[in-house]
Every structure is written in C-alpha cells, then in structure tokens.
Amino acid sequence: MNKAESYWRRHTVRAPHFWTRRGSLAYLDWRYLRYPLMREVMPPYGSASGVVLDYGCGPGNDLVGLAEYSTASEIIGVDVSLRALRLARRRLRLHPVAGGGRVRLMQGDGARIPLRDASVDHIWCEGVLHHVSNPIAVLHEFRRVLAPGGSVKLMVYNRNSVWRNLYVPYVLGCGDDLDEACRKSTDGKGCPIARFCSIRDVSEMVGVAGFDCDFMGSYFADVELRACRRHLFAAMRSPRIPPKCRRFLGEWTLDVRGYPMDAAGFYAGIGGVYVATAEDCAWADGREIVDRLYWPNAQAETSERSE
After folding, report:
1. pLDDT per residue as tens digits for the range 237-275
2. How far apart are CA 147 and CA 91, in angstroms?
C-alpha cells in the first residue's frame, strides 16, 4: 500500500452527521454557496443516466446528489476508506430513492476498480485524481470499465488558480517551496499528494489513457474570492510572491462580480473541471508523461512504483 492510499484509508473529507433527508440535501446546497460557479461548470447530476460510478465517493455527497437528482438506474460508489463508506451508507439510509439496490458501495484496492469491463455508462470523479499515486493507472481503469459512448467528469486542482497563485503564497505564505505549501494547504498537512494541474497536464494525461478531453472551466472556493478582494493589488507588488505568480496575477481581469479570469478568459478557481470521452486508440503506459509533466513528487512516485 502506498502513502497516498494509506492516508485516505484513515481520512475522509468533511463529513457532518445528518439526521434528516432535508438536512442532507441542504448540505448539497451549502456546497454550491461555498464554491461559486460549481453549479455552472459541474452541473448537479441531471445528465447522468444508466449506470454511474462515483470513484472516490467519500462520505457520499455526490452519491446523494446522483440518487436524488439523476435518472441513473444504478449508482456505484467506490472508495479506499471503509470509514467513508460507512458514513455514506448511513447517510444514504435517509434517502428512500437510494434504496432497493439502486446504490451499491464497495471498497477499492489501489488503482484497480472492482467492476467488469464496459460495465458503467458515466464516471464521476470529483477531487480524487490529484491525490492518487498513479493517476494514469486510474484513468486506464476508467477506460476499461467505461461502456462505449460513455463519459468521465473530472475535477482536479487548477494550477492557474487564485489558490495557488495568491492565497497560498501571499495569505498563507509559501516559503521557498510553493508546491509543498500548496500540498499542505488543501487536505491536511499530512496528505502526501495534492497536485495542481494545468489544462495541458490533464489533456496529455487523459490522452495517454485513450480519452479525448474538454476543459469545462473552473469553480472557486469562497476563500479564494475573499483573498482576491482583500489582497490582489497588494500581492501583485509583493516580493513575498514568486515572480511567476506575480506575472500571472498581472494578467488577470475581473468580471462584473469581481471574479478573476486569466489571460485565456477562464475563471481562475481551484476546481478545474473536465469531461473525458473515449477515443479509439491503443493504450500506453504513460509513465514518461507523468515524469515529464509538472507533477510534484513524480520522480519519487516512479521510483516507488518500480520497487
């Protein structure tokens, strides 16, 4: 078991206890308030039909959304953490639409997904791929279990974000290692891997696994917008911020709501959202892609996998 899997077997994302269906659904609405533009770039579940896999389902936020708001005939939640699966199972009991065998939960084992080839129609993977030791191996598994005509919706941390270029270096302070500071800032200081990816990073990575990829945009964490309102102009002149980040901030424009957009016209939020669809091409190992692209700790992970 590698360090990333070991960490996520012991930890899970924020998981309040719910006593009623109403409270459980209200928490989904609260997430959209906390993450502006999330509803727009990662729409809530309506297009998901057939068999849907929620990979890295955690304590069940998206399982609940899929059960309540999609037309999926079957929903499968996979996670490495038994604790997360127990929390998800308890929460799903509040939702009658999740009963009757419509939602199944199972523990994953590393990159391997315990499902048959071509057995799911859609895959939902929010905030998981940037934490795994071998993301291309996971994408190969997505390709294997996905039925023809299926799609994958991904969210990974956005390299061109307020979080990485303003909030971490200016508000939190990054010292001499911005990537290490970013890793510690998202999911606990002990989280071993938290990659921030550019559009090119993700496109090349999913291409190796046999997918076409479209960038749908990004959503913000509310803390990013507060940091932007309070600190953007001071940060652009601050020596505390690495020069590349200062140049990036200088290229931003603000929309009428004060939401920052990068030079390409994309919103600069932490949640980068992509839709991947299968193309007809041979699979590749992809290890050289992981090494070549900007992946913190990639060399260490490659050595670990080869041992």
Report:
1. 999 899 999 999 999 999 999 999 999 999 999 999 999
2. 29
The residue type found at 58 is: G
How far, in Å, CA of 149 to CA of 185, rounded?
A: 37
pTM: 0.88
Residue 93's identity, in one-letter code, is R
pLDDT (0 to 100) of residue 279: 67
Sketch the domain layout of the chain as residue ranges.
3-159+179-221+270-306
Per-residue tokens: 46? 């309506």
Instruction: Point out which residues pair with 105 in neighbouring strands.
Output: 77
| Phi, psi dihedral angles at 274 (to 5 degrees) | -135, 150
> Which helix (H) or strand (E) segment is 89 a member of?
helix 82-92
- Helices 222-235 and 243-250 cross at an angle (nearest 10°) of 100
| Helix ranges, 187-255 (H) | 199-208, 222-235, 243-250
- What backbone torsions phi and psi does residue 7 show, to the nearest 5 degrees? -60, -45
Sequence-ordered strand ranges (E) for the chain: 49-55, 71-79, 103-107, 120-126, 146-157, 211-219, 253-254, 260-261, 271-278
Question: Architecture of 3-159+179-221+270-306 per CATH?
Answer: 3-Layer(aba) Sandwich (3.40)
